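Problem: given the chain below (165 residues), write out its structure.
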Amino acid sequence: MKKLMLLFALVALFTTNVLAQTPWKIVDMEYITKTGGNCEYDDETCTATFKGKYDRWFDLPDLSGDLTNHTKLSATILKSNVILTFNVRYRDADGKIQQVKAQTFYGQMGKEINAKKTLKVDLSNKGKITNEMLKNVTSIRVSMAKEASGAAEPWFCQFGDIVVE
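Solution.
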């Protein structure tokens, strides 16, 4: 009986660990041009190029709806000379689309990035973005906050995987 209970406990532990590590969604960065934005984006190299001014952005594809249980996003950056902001866009009670800032990476992206770096984004902004907002997400918008340490135009960011848990 003890062996059976031990076996059951080990199977349960293994199952919960495997499920906890499984991502909810892997964002396909090769389809950014289909979701919209006001910056240049190369689907083959997964590189966003920002020109002219700082208010340049694009929306992540297939990331909308109820995200209350999926607020952890990991973004792999391969190369970059910009500081990024991740924004949550949602539909309010009046049906209007609103935008709220989830996180800006001034510290982690303040210098030019030339090697793989992973950003951990909290889409709830430590609870400041409410569940009511997260239930009605229309998109997750990635925008340029500013250039990294005086980088010259054109500003760019090359993405690897973006995973949502």
